[in-house]
Amino acid sequence: MNAHFFFLSSPVPVERLTWIEECLKFFFIQLYPDTLMHRKTAESPVFSFFLTGDALYSLEDPETLQVWNIILSFTPVRIISDRQELELRGIGIGPLRVKYPDQVIDTNSPGGDGKPSFWKDLAAASRQTKSPLPGTAGWFQTGSPYMHRSAWYGLSFLSSAIGERLSAELYAYLDGIHLGHHGQRPTDAENIGEGLTTLSDQATAAGLGFQALACGRCATARGYSTWDDGQGSVISTCTIKPFKIRELNQMIDRFRHSHTILSPDAGAFRLRKQGTAVSFDRAEKNSAAPPVTLLVTKSPYSTELASGAVAFAAACAHAGILTRVVFLEDGVYALTGAHRVPVNSVVFSLQDVINAVAGSENLHFFAFTPSFQKRGITKDKSLNAVLDIGYPGLGKIFFYPPGNVQAGHQRVFVF
Questions:
Q1: Of residues 249, 239, 184, the one with CA closest to residue 212
Q2: 378: phi > 0 → left, psi -120 to 50 → alpha, else beta; which?
Q3: In 10 A of CB 126, how many CB atoms?
């Protein structure tokens, strides 16, 4: 796996790029100060940003471009952009390329068809080892197909991963379960259902594994017909053959393994060996599972993303995975004010849910104070289990090795 990288495909607001900038300052100043003096050592890192989709607009928008210039002042930083998506959107990054010719890359490696492939570059960076033995790559999808381009990005990544001799796994959560619905026949977009079937065939032909797991709770909420197949597994009459609806714990079990898992906006950060830095927090028991950090960036209630993140975090922690949930950007609205639901309501407020699960083993909640300050709001006093952190705290979560964890990297997902 490339030492440290962020994959971004959604719009990148200035606020997000700003906290990324501050975390990189922490990363280089606290952990790798030699790189600031342009002295390379055996440990010198390369921090890569893989940009596609709407994230590419941040390379020409004046406000975000100003922050990118600060980020690129760290010479180990690289931006690898999707050439085809740049051309599709008519985005020109020539001036940035001229200014940082060794750091801003807009050419991609040849794919299996001989054409430049951004996804091949991303899949190669995701490989955990250079060993010829097959590995695995995963994609975590929460958005529906067609309404969101991210479904196609996921299939493109997994297809290139198979080309890199990696088995492919898709994890469908929330509206991501619609990727596997049978009978998809779009007239003006790639057929995601057929794409999944093709992925399965491609993996089988290469002697590799493929599985697509969907959350049973999310599927039931969306009306997918199911029954028990006699082995404790839930099968749907609404899905294509390679797509399997299972209990969430079966999906979470795959997150206990060490392979790289990406989502439409995600990070994979290598953890330094124990003893090289002070740990910020720790798992309750020794674990080899990569820690999971969920960044809740959306306000509660308007979408299922914030509540879905908390539910997923609780499931990960229950499986023994050290899990952090950080509320930042508009996600801090989940923590401000006293949330009340109507009397006799069948649902709970998100604050009630947070307080109910906050004492769970391996589950830690954090509130990013700069996001509160930007909005002129404060955290509700009842949320004592949600710890306040600033830029240094976020940097420590990302880059300090947590206690009792022997994993080589951690996963970061943006909700």
A1: 239
A2: beta
A3: 26
Task: Kindly report, residue by residue over 181-201, the tens digit of the pLDDT.
Answer: 999 999 999 999 999 999 999
CB atoms within 10 A of CB 204: 13
The pLDDT value recorded for residue 110 is 83
pTM above 0.85, yes or no: yes
236-295 pLDDT, tens digit per residue, is 678 888 899 999 999 999 999 999 999 999 999 988 765 555 677 888 888 899 999 999
Q: Could you tell me which of 28, 107, 122 has the C-alpha nearest to residue 73?
A: 28
Which strand (E) or helix (H) includes residue 305?
helix 305-318
Give me the sheet containing 210-215, strands edge to edge: 243-246, 210-215, 166-172, 135-141, 260-262
380-393: pLDDT as tens digits: 998 989 999 999 99
Give residue 227's pLDDT.
66
Contact criterion met (CB below 8 Å) for 196 and 242 = yes
E strands of 254-305, at which residues? 260-262, 265-270, 282-287, 292-296
Q: How far apart (Å, rounded) are the C-alpha atoms in residues 204 and 201?
A: 5
SS3 274: coil
Which DSSP string do the residues of 330-394 spell out, in sequence order? GGGGGGSS---PPTT-SS--HHHHHHHHTTSTTEEEEEEHHHHHHHT----TT-TTEEEE-HHHH
As a whole number of angstroms, the distance between CA 356 and CA 353 comes to 5
Q: What is the mean pLDDT of residues 171-180?
A: 96
C-beta neighbour count of 365 within 10 angstroms: 21
User: 190-200 burial by CB neighbour count: b if 16+ within 10 A, else e?
Assistant: ebbbebbbebb
Q: Report residue 240 as tokens.
A: 């294509």
Secondary element (H or E) of residue 193: helix 192-205
Domains and CATH numbers, the chain: 1-107 (3.40.1260), 123-270 (3.40.1260.10), 273-415 (3.40.1260.10)
Enclosing H/E stretch for 326: strand 323-327
First CA to last CA across the chain, in angstroms? 23
Residue 376, pLDDT above cutoff 50: yes
- Contact criterion met (CB below 8 Å) for 205 and 163: no
